[in-house]
Write a structure and sequence with these properties.
This protein is an all-beta fold. It contains no helices and 20 strands.
Length: about 220
């Protein structure tokens, strides 16, 4: 279990049967996102509660989806092997396969980010939100981390291999990307919840627990 503060560290496939309701896309069938800029965890505060949505910025205009309406796909081209460098030991055994959606944009893969630009400064206590990765279900483990300027692992944000929940702390206005790695091909479900306190009186606010589905292709 870890609690990590994540400040700004680094500067689609077709949708089927999508309706726009209240500014958020409601998908009759899952929307497959496998390339381009997508803020997987997009935060907002509306009507007294926090909201988590997927912000798809891969097209000319941003589209917002409920996490349950989206299938996030790691294409076969994301497969690599775990380096022998001990800094990558959190991923598992060196030489074993891993599927990585990279922190640095690759136009052929999903560029998965965190977005808190919709949170206004001064609304939440210390302008901070805790994003809790509560559980991961799938054939392997999920790890999310950021690299330093040399491309080496710097901060492990989430690692289902050593126990959950893990909490990523975001600040109002933040927008950043990280590496998302899966250690086996298959389908993963990831449950996430956001929580904070209001700056006005310290009362707690939270989101519902949302469920993401990732499909890792071999």
């Amino acid at each position: 279990m870890r609690n990590t503060s994540l400040r700004t560290l680094v500067g689609v496939s077709g949708a089927v049967g999508v309706l726009m309701i209240g500014g958020q896309a409601q998908a009759a069938c899952p929307v497959v996102l496998d390339q381009g800029h997508v803020d997987v965890v997009g935060l907002a505060y509306e009507d007294g509660s926090l909201e988590i949505a997927v912000h798809d910025e891969s097209g000319a205009e941003e589209v917002e989806y409920a996490p349950e309406d989206v299938l996030l796909r790691a294409l076969p081209a994301s497969e690599t092997t775990i380096p022998s460098d001990p800094a990558y030991a959190f991923l598992g055994t060196a030489g074993k396969p891993a599927w990585i959606l990279p922190q640095v944009q690759n136009p052929d893969l999903l560029w998965a980010g965190f977005g808190a630009e919709e949170l206004e400064s001064g609304v939440l206590q210390d302008d901070e939100v805790d994003v809790s990765f509560k559980s991961v279900s799938g054939p392997g483990r999920l790890a999310v981390w950021t690299d330093d300027v040399f491309g080496e692992p710097e901060t492990v944000l989430v690692n289902s291999g050593d126990g959950l929940p893990d909490t990523v702390q975001l600040a109002a206005g933040d927008h950043t990307h990280a590496n998302w790695a899966f250690t086996k091909a298959g389908t993963y479900t990831v449950k996430v919840k956001a929580a904070a306190h209001l700056a006005s009186d310290g009362s707690p606010v939270s989101s519902r627990t949302v469920t993401y589905t990732f499909e890792v292709q071999k």
